[in-house]
Write a structure and sequence with these properties.
The complex is a heterodimer of chains A (222) and B (76).
Chain A: E1 3-7, H1 14-25, E2 30-33, E3 44-47, H2 67-77, E4 81-85, H3 87-95, E5 101-103, E6 111-119, E7 135-142, E8 146-148, H4 151-159, E9 163-167, E10 178-182, E11 188-191, H5 209-221
Parallel strand pairs in A: 1-2, 1-3, 3-4, 4-11
Antiparallel strand pairs in A: 5-8, 6-7, 6-9, 9-10, 10-11
Helix pairs in contact in A: 1-5
Chain B: E1 2-9, H1 16-27, E2 40-45, H2 52-63, E3 69-75
Antiparallel strand pairs in B: 1-2, 1-3
Classes of the chains: A alpha/beta (222), B alpha+beta (76).
Amino acid sequence: MKSAVIVFPGSNCDRDMAVALREVTGRAPAMVWHRETVLPDVDVIALPGGFSYGDYLRTGAISAQSPIMAAVKRAAEQGRFVLGVCNGFQVLTETGLLPGALMRNAGLDFVCRDVPLTVENTQTAFTSAYKAGETIHIPVAHHDGNYFADTDTLDRIEGEGRVVFRYAEDVNGAQRRIAGIVNETGNVLGMMPHPERAIEVAQGGTDGRRLFEGLVRAFVDA
Amino acid sequence: MKAKVYVTLKNGVLDPQGKAICHALESLGFDEAQDVRQGKFIELELADGTSEARIEEMCRKLLANTVIENYRIEIA
């Protein structure tokens, strides 16, 4: 499984993401600067966390217009896997690859701690290594993770099983405690918690590792 | 030419920052403050003759996120 990590000015989880991908897939990902217009030939594209463009205008809004995002959009439409974590999730909603928007946390605080998540759908490549209904612990670190979408959109994505991770407790005011969603075809995942920060015991937990293992398995099985 | 763009949250979208501002006004003794909604004001310096349709396009593509925000354009 070959992967790439997109690097925006202000990304700060790009190296953690690279380490996680290298550890689990056995191959170092390509690091792709956002000014590039062409993606290397990869199976998985990761949009990392951070504060791209200093969160100017809206989180993810400027990065969503970066030259590389046109290529990421095409790759997503072709069925390549795209994983957006934290700021990466915000970029995915701003590009329209995922529905909804991420707003300022309801409590206004920056929330930085391990949170319990319920795995709601294990039928995606990203979640296939988890057990349905399982509670996992993954760190969050964000100021704007309060998921918002109109009621029709919420009902639709819930009905289609596209809410894959849900906070087991209120973390940021997100509607229906949504922590992570996939697109209609299940190959694009956006989530606020950081699985790349929970891949080895030294990090305090390993529940994030199985997300990457699930992806690898999708390619072994294919 | 100049254009002003006002970006505001849609009705029904919770505005925690507006709420915090409202509480701060109350604690300063401004009991009149009943609700506060915070938005953005963007001033654009544009080539003369830029059409309103072009400015609309700027709003839809970048300046506002129409999932959560409305925008209003004033051409000076």
